[in-house]
Amino acid sequence: MSVKQISIFIENKKGKLAQATKFIASHDINLRALSIADTQDFGILRIICEDPDKANEVLREGGFLTTTTKVLAAPISDEPGSLASILEVLSESNVMVEYTYAFLSEKHGAYMILRVDDNQMAAAALAGAGIKTVDQADLF
Description:
Blueprint (H helix, E strand, L loop, with lengths): L2 E9 L4 H11 L4 E8 L3 E8 L2 H10 L3 E12 L5 H11 L4 E9 L3 E8 L2 H10 L7 H4 L1
Antiparallel strand pairs: 1-3, 1-4, 2-3, 4-6, 5-6
């Protein structure tokens, strides 16, 4: 199971993040999760939304440079060691974690988004440890 994440490349200048999120909102796209990484010249805005295909289409039509990546989403409990448990399972299974970020869902609790080098291997390892991954529909 995986989730489609959209990465949007934006200039690292004042107002550009506001411009991108306003554009997304103007097309009635609700963001469930967001992460941003930046360098001196540009940022990568990573989003999870209900309809990633629609979001990707309108962003490209709006002149934004985007890519779509399949990532894993795993529920996580609100207690010390929850993230460490997930990362330990992946490490013991020789799965490389490229990055991760969390988000809260009012209805469903907390989730970790995980970008790994092998989604299938990671999902199998997590399932073997009793940690379920979810798909796009489960998040909404």
